[in-house]
Write a structure and sequence with these properties.
The complex is a heterodimer of chains A (175) and B (648).
Chain A: H1 2-88, H2 98-116, E1 119-121, E2 135-137, E3 152-157, E4 160-162, E5 165-168, E6 170-174
Parallel strand pairs in A: 2-6
Antiparallel strand pairs in A: 1-4, 3-6, 4-5
Chain B: E1 4-8, E2 13-20, E3 23-26, E4 36-37, E5 39-42, E6 48-50, H1 52-56, E7 65-67, H2 80-88, E8 92-96, E9 99-104, E10 107-109, H3 111-130, E11 136-141, H4 147-159, E12 163-169, H5 170-177, E13 186-193, E14 198-206, E15 209-218, H6 223-242, H7 250-266, E16 272-283, E17 286-295, H8 296-309, H9 311-320, E18 330-334, H10 341-351, H11 364-377, E19 393-397, E20 401-406, E21 414-420, E22 430-436, E23 446-453, E24 466-472, E25 478-484, E26 490-495, H12 503-515, H13 517-547, H14 553-569, H15 575-610, H16 622-635
Parallel strand pairs in B: 1-11, 11-12, 13-18
Antiparallel strand pairs in B: 1-2, 2-3, 2-4, 5-6, 5-7, 8-9, 9-10, 13-14, 14-15, 16-17, 19-20, 19-22, 21-24, 22-23, 24-25, 25-26
Classes of the chains: A alpha+beta (175), B alpha+beta (648).
């Protein structure tokens, strides 16, 4: 009786074996399909990232010219600031002396170079409302202010724009 | 699936990055800057200002300009740090619900709400730059932050509209940026010297987890302190020179501050820096100028104590981690101040190994945060980590020169092909000698393998086209193939990734190349000049043979003379003479060429009038073309010919 049962079981097993194998195979195939889709999507995303990066780089290239101009201008501006300081300090009676006027012309040369490259001086006057988009406030410890009225009391350094962009805010004392 | 923003929320400055195409990139803010000051203010007109704008008006509005909020977030009012800040910070800090609140305008805010304002701006700027919505982020915190501080930071992100996927430690982020999370059982020291704080952390990496073993530091030691020392020195020097104390003059002080920072940065690369500030002030005698030189050695003398101060906490951190200096496998540098040569040297001396600073120390934490975001998103999979080749691959070409095919630091997998030709007439085979290294001469590089491609049909030198392809797969296995374009016959060789070169050997090869760069260049130039001479002699002689009696003996004579002259000097060592002779022969040879060309044109226009009338002269001067092609081959270093002599 057990012999028969064993053989029955064997037959049943043998019948099931291919089904089991198929199930295993399909499960594997499913796993591979999922992986395949994941890889394909990942690849597409990577390519898309690359395309977008290229586009951003192209934009950056275009603005590189502007950026270099801005960078050069920012290096020249302190020189112009110092020229201004120099000419401001010239005693009144010396202002017409040729070598003084010569220096002033050199100052003008530098200013012209900036203008030609699209760098413009910002209009800032005493009494203007302080605006952090255009101005940078610095401390003036000759006064003891605890309350500020938000009006510009002194212009220490001029501010400049390159096109529409503020490349250097005007340095001011606010009272 | 939107990008996860990696954010380094710093005490003084913040930065952000995302992963694109598998690697992290810093995102610039709206103002075009890579970092954003961690500052918030309420202006007189009740406008909220964030970042740079807040900084610009801080002087006019000290009570309502908030900064260093990171020092307060998640802390209790009684904390030592808070009590210390109460005295130092100009804005109002109050006790609230066990924690703290800050006063801005007429309202009270939790530190989370303030940090959220910074995070909001960063989120908005990132969205604008990337053109897509950002809803998730990874934010970094110091390794010593406790639960309350981490929770509060996460809250700040949520208030800003960000789902904070992870809060990770700053040193861990730095290690991630270097890929050190892939290491097994290694100990990493992260030395972070920023603008206001110094942090040292000891990490242990194993099986993809990074554990913080210990931390230490000085919460009030940073780049700003270095600047202060330089400013002090400038003021003292000026006092000596002019007997004027500039510290009382806030306008001059502002200029000195900027000049000091500029000098400090310059002295990281130069040995001395000139501080030049004309018209710094005026006295009864007229204007005064601030002009002085600061040398690197003087700077190091001035700040030496500060740098030394960082070693105490470092020793303590090691002790707490129960490690000795020799247990540390890698040192990572974070923070702009670590660029200073004195800091680099001090760290290297202390740890006995070169610290890692190749990733921008100002940006490394944000980049690491972005990588963590990428990992969470599946952008950065182990399986996708790419390598680069550390050394250049190439082959040996005519004259024993190394012609590169794949440059070092090329990301792999990659493939590169180039067409080469033969060096002598009827050369039946070419030998491909595969090399690795940075030197210009083949013999100074490492031989990876050789093989021969034969069966090249008999042709004049420079005519056969052998396409050589170098292909490196993702496992670093190099396949070199040579194919004769005429016969389609090909031969190849496969070289395993294990070239057996250690990190030190690679570094040595690179150094050698640098040291010998000039002499290598000269040698290569010399050989190229000789090659060019050889080729020109060959092509000119051939052209004259082929021209036959189309050229008179008189016309041939000057050319023959130049050929003889060049033959005499080409094997010598004087490159200039070889070049000169080559040039002279070239000019003479051109005259022959011109004549042949004109003759051909004349012949053709005669033909053209009789034939279809569409024939163009261009195609009708084959001799001329052959000559040009060969001259181009010889002078175009990309098309160097292979040296057959070696195979025998």
């Amino acid at each position: 009786m057990t012999e028969e049962k064993k053989t029955e079981e064997n037959i049943a097993e043998k019948k099931e074996a291919p089904i089991k194998e198929s199930k295993k195979f399909f499960k594997k195939a499913e796993k591979h399909e999922t992986k395949e889709e994941e890889y394909l999507l990942g690849w597409k995303r990577c390519l898309a990232d690359f395309e977008n990066y290229k586009k951003r780089q192209q934009e950056n290239q275009k603005s590189l010219g502007e950026y270099l101009k801005e960078d050069s201008a920012l290096q020249i501006l302190p020189v112009i600031d110092n020229f201004r300081s120099a000419t401001e300090h010239v005693p009144e009676e010396q202002k017409e002396v040729p070598w003084v006027t010569g220096i002033m012309y050199i100052q003008k040369q530098l200013e012209d170079i900036l203008k030609e490259n699209g760098v413009t001086e910002m209009e800032v006057k005493i009494g203007d409302e302080f605006n952090p988009s255009l101005h940078e406030a610095i401390a003036d410890n000759t006064k003891d202010e605890k309350e500020f009225s938000n009006k510009i009391a002194r212009v220490i350094l001029k501010g400049y724009k390159l096109g529409e962009k503020v490349i250097r805010p005007a340095r001011v004392v606010v009272e | 699936m939107a990008k996860i923003l990696g954010i380094d929320l710093g005490t003084t400055n913040s930065a952000m990055a995302v992963v694109e195409g598998g690697s992290p990139n810093i995102i610039e803010n709206k103002e075009g800057n890579r970092t954003t000051p961690s500052m918030i203010a309420i202006s007189k007109s009740n406008e909220r200002l964030v970042g740079l704008l807040a900084k610009r008006q801080s002087v006019t509005n000290p009570n309502n300009t908030l900064y260093s909020i990171k020092r307060l977030i998640g802390r209790k009012f009684e904390d030592e740090e808070v009590q210390r800040d109460l005295k130092m910070l100009p804005y109002k800090i109050v006790k609230a619900n066990g924690g703290v609140k800050v006063v801005m305008g007429d309202k009270e805010y939790t530190p989370q709400e303030i940090s959220a304002m910074i995070l909001s701006k960063m989120k908005a700027d990132a969205e604008e730059k990337l053109g897509e919505k950002i809803t998730e982020a990874v934010i970094t915190v110091p390794a010593y932050f406790d639960d309350a501080q981490r929770k509060a930071t996460k809250e700040a992100g949520e208030i800003a509209g960000l789902n904070v996927r992870r809060i990770i430690n700053e040193p861990t982020a730095a290690a991630l940026a270097y890929g050190f999370n892939k290491k097994k059982d290694e100990k990493i020291a992260v030395y972070d010297l920023g603008g206001g704080t110094f942090d040292i952390s000891i990490l242990e990496v194993s099986e993809d987890t990074v554990e913080v073993k210990s931390t230490n530091g000085d919460t009030h030691l940073g780049g700003d302190d270095f600047d202060q020392i330089i400013i002090r020195w400038i003021i003292d020097e000026f006092k000596k020179q002019e007997a004027i104390d500039l510290s009382k003059d806030s306008l001059a002080l502002q200029r000195i501050k900027e000049a000091a920072e500029k000098a400090k940065i310059e002295l990281s690369t130069a040995m001395e820096s000139e501080i030049n500030q004309p018209f710094i002030t005026t006295d009864a005698n007229g204007p005064k100028h601030l002009v002085m030189k600061l040398t690197r050695s003087k700077l190091e003398e001035l700040v030496g104590d500060l740098v030394a101060k960082t070693l105490e906490p470092t020793k303590k951190a090691l002790a707490d981690a129960k490690l000795s200096v020799s247990d540390i496998n890698e040192v990572v540098l974070v923070g702009g101040m670590t660029r200073m040569p004195l800091v680099l040297a001090t760290v290297e001396k202390f740890f006995g190994k070169k610290p890692n600073i190749s990733v921008n120390p100002d940006e490394v934490v944000a980049l690491g945060a972005a990588i963590q975001g990428g990992v969470l998103q599946g952008d950065v999979k182990d399986v996708l980590l790419l390598d680069v080749t550390p050394l250049t691959f190439g082959i040996e070409t005519m004259g024993g020169v190394r012609t590169p095919l794949i440059d070092r630091n090329t990301t792999i997998p990659t493939s590169k092909s180039q067409v080469f030709s033969t060096a002598t007439d009827n050369q039946p085979s070419v030998e491909i000698h595969v090399l690795q290294g940075e030197r210009e001469m083949a013999i100074d590089n490492k031989t990876l393998g050789r093989f021969i491609l034969d069966g090249i049909p008999p042709s004049p030198r420079g005519i056969p086209q052998v396409e050589v392809t170098f292909d490196i797969d993702a496992n670093g296995i190099l396949n070199v193939k040579a194919k004769d374009k005429a016969t389609n016959k090909e031969q190849s060789i496969r070289i395993e990734a294990s070239t057996g070169l250690s990190k030190e050997e690679i570094e040595k090869m690179k150094k050698d190349a640098e040291v010998h760069a000039d002499e290598d260049k000269k040698k290569k130039e010399s050989i190229e000049a000789k090659n060019m001479a050889d080729t020109l002699i060959y092509t000119t002689e051939k052209a004259m043979r082929d021209a036959g009696d189309k050229i008179t003996a008189d016309e041939k004579k000057p050319v023959e003379e130049k050929i003889e002259a060049l033959k005499k000097v080409k094997d010598g060592d004087d490159i200039e003479i070889i070049k000169k002779s080559t040039e002279e022969l070239s000019l003479e040879a051109q005259k022959i060429g011109e004549k042949l060309y004109k003759a051909a044109q004349a012949a053709d226009s005669a033909k053209a009038t009789t034939a279809e009338g569409g024939a163009t002269p261009e195609g009708e001067a084959p001799k001329e073309e052959v000559k040009d092609a060969e001259t181009k081959d010889s002078s175009d270093s990309a098309k160097a010919t292979t040296d057959e002599g070696k195979k025998e």
